[in-house]
Amino acid sequence: PLPDxxxxxxxxxxxxxxxxxxxxxxxxxxxxxxxxxxxxLEYVNIGADTKINQFRNExxxxxxxxx
Length: 67
Hints:
mainly alpha
């Protein structure tokens, strides 16, 4: 799985850990994003292109947007 273990674990912890996580081998990123939009939930994706500094910035921006 991507990204590497160090990046993936750091992003996962910054995003809130297990109680704020969705994982599926059957649903696509698009499915999860659609659900988040319908339910007015924050959605961030930890994937192959995840960079920790950018990811943390996205979390900060989302904190303002989802208050």
